[in-house]
Write a structure and sequence with these properties.
Blueprint (H helix, E strand, L loop, with lengths): L7 E4 L18 H7 L21 E4 L4 E4 L13 E5 L14 H10 L1 H12 L10 H6 L7 H39 L1
Antiparallel strand pairs: 1-4, 2-3, 2-4
Helix pairs in contact: 2-3, 2-5
């Protein structure tokens, strides 16, 4: 089954043309994406709220071909043309074999060997100098759906793994700060 049968891939906007109320527009950046890689936020089944990022949104870097869950630090920023937001349409009326859970989607695009192989091929076939995906490419990725109970287990394990890595990273950062402060006092 193709991903465009399960999700909607909404591309970002040209931030200079974004029609957002308010005076200051903060654009979602690769630095935000890197921070969100270690987000502790739970994925949500977001609906289209325009190009504005909300905590828990599933975001794809079209340049890297990776997926993250938006953290509260990214909330309110605008996704530009290097990113896409994944929307999960109301699937309650769909049969169980046509539902994809948000956490499982994160697993598929970041970890599943078959999907990663398709992403590499799609990026290699890009006609741009910078090998990148398009929203349409993501929709063309083929996946084999498993029962939602298994999706939930795999997705939750993937999210838990990311959260553990995030906490370990924070712990290491705090340790480095402590060592730095201690060394400063010694000098």
């Amino acid at each position: 089954m193709r991903l465009d049968e399960l999700v909607v891939v909404q591309g970002g906007v040209n931030s200079s043309r974004a029609n957002i109320s308010g005076s200051v527009i903060k654009e979602y950046s690769m630095a935000d994406f890197d921070r969100d890689r270690y987000s502790l936020a739970e994925p949500t089944r977001s609906s289209w709220s325009g190009p504005v990022v909300e905590t828990g949104d599933i975001l794809v870097s079209l340049v890297r071909g990776e997926v993250v869950i938006a953290s509260n630090f990214s909330s309110g920023k605008i996704i530009g043309q290097n990113f896409a937001k994944i929307l999960f349409p109301n699937q309650e009326n769909d049969s169980a074999d046509k539902r994809i859970l948000a956490a499982y989607f994160v697993y598929l695009l970041n970890e599943d060997p078959e999907v990663l192989s398709q992403i590499r091929i799609l990026r290699a076939g890009s006609s741009t100098v910078q090998k990148r995906l398009t929203s349409q490419n993501i929709g063309n990725i083929k996946v084999d759906l498993i029962p939602t109970e298994q999706q939930e287990k795999i997705g939750n394990l993937c999210i838990l793994s990311r959260q553990i890595v995030s906490l370990q990273k924070r712990r290491l950062d705090l340790w480095e700060q402590k060592v730095h402060t201690t060394l400063q006092r010694c000098v």
